[in-house]
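Q: Can someone sanity-check these two? First one:
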Amino acid sequence: MVTYHITLPSGQNPLTVKELLEDHWLVPRKIRHFLRTKKHLLVNDQQVTWQTSVQTNDKVSLTFDDEDYPKKAIPFGDKTLVDCLYEDEHLIIVNKPEGMKTHGNEPTELALLNHVSAYVGATCYVVHRLDMETSGAILFAKNPFVLPIVNRLLECKKISRHYWALAEGHFEQKQVTYRNKIGRDRHDRRKRVIDAKHGQRAVTHITNLKAFKEASLVNCQLETGRTHQIRVHLSHHNHPILGDPLYSKKAAPRLMLHAHQLQLTHPFTRQKITVKATSESFERGLHKLTEH
């Protein structure tokens, strides 16, 4: 059994408990039923009805037991491998090294999710992914209660993700947006391709930061989150990322793609969270590939 105490932030417009749970916190119907029948929801330590109005500075307490959210056990990894950038009761943001999977393909395979769970001491949940070869900031939910809430923030484009990429060639414009739809490669299951007819919507905003002799450092902001999105978009427009094992022929010490910034507004406190992630291997690769 676990209880979360959430104080509604300043500026919170009055709304009913029902509206808070359904529309703002996206608590599933089954869980709302349990909260009501078990009397596991209090406002300012008092029993309330679903039509009770709540507002700024009210303390909402929610208690969940194993029946509400059955425990999902995964093997713990190595907590010493976790570079934590931000953590609170509900969220954790870490700096993923290149060469590590976000989550394993098999139940016994250890990946970043397992290491983060060991660091936290409880099973965590993937909100978004980074390719194995990509480093940088990545967000996990620390409990199943907050997971659908941050998933909706991601879907509504309220989680901002910025990447640095060292791409082949030079860009004619300071800023450009790629909107090519992305689908699976029918000939290679590892890859994705531009598929105007059957692909999914994909939008990447590119800002040219610095031009080198044969490459350019660009900032890529994701509006959508398709698999290999930045890699496919840049490759399709003749700017493949250096060191990309799937979409580039130019060798590099690593895939030169790094998620350097992640930003969101906390769903409960309304605090604006901005984290920046560094990567020594990305910096070394950048220096080596552009020093001539």
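And here is the second, same format, sequence then tokens:
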Amino acid sequence: MLELVSQHACFGGQQRFYRHASAAIGLPMRFSVYLPPQVAQGRVPALFYLAGLTCTEETFMIKAGAQRVAAALGLALVAPDTSPRGAGVAGEDADWDLGTGAGFYLDATAAPWAPHYRMHSYLLELHALLLAELPLQAGRIGICGHSMGGHGALVLALRHPERFASLSAFAPICAPRACPWGEKAFSAYLGARSAAWDAYDASALMAQAQTPFPGGILIDQGLADPFLPVQLRPEDFEAACAKAQQPLTLRRHAGYDHGYYFIASFIEDHLRFHAAQLSR
């Protein structure tokens, strides 16, 4: 059951914040939803947005400036939290890039994380829950994300194309098996390097695919992003897409960094990209 925490009129629609008990996580979870004014006439397509390290369900809705365009397009927006909260795991608040706010959108299998850090399953649970409880159109759900959330969006879409019909990302972690952020998180959550790591690496998944998104994938990357050289590795995903014959628009922007000024600058392009894909 969804508990409505707050709601706010916004561009003719409603910005809502919810809490609910998650079976996948085993704890209460929070998420936010923007419902455009078109829900007065019936169900609408939706875009899931997965935020990055240290973020919450509020970050995108407050910082990206997406609601105005979403209202014009008749597109709902869904932003989940980035990890369980209060799981009681020793050390979960010690590092900004592991534990609280850093769930990496995977299902942990290693102790002590495994009981609650199950964000991959949680996103699938939330997808089903919102189709049942809110006026969203089944079959017309897209996914987008930023940084750690870009990694999550790529992986969720590649593993579950039947659930997500369109895909884009901002500065995603494209090859977590091969970067410090991913190696730290995967070692903690999944244990020693193994095939389990491949299951949550977008470049590895794409290299084994064959044109999973014929309508294309959109990625924006700032060239002044301090994390680009070591952590993000978009060239790995670009090479995997070429192998998979996957259409990819990877736009590199001079002067833009990793933050929400970058996202706010190009969010309209992403919303229009998803609206066009979801209308097919």
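A (reply): Looked at the second one. The longest helix spans residues 260-278. The mean pLDDT is 98.
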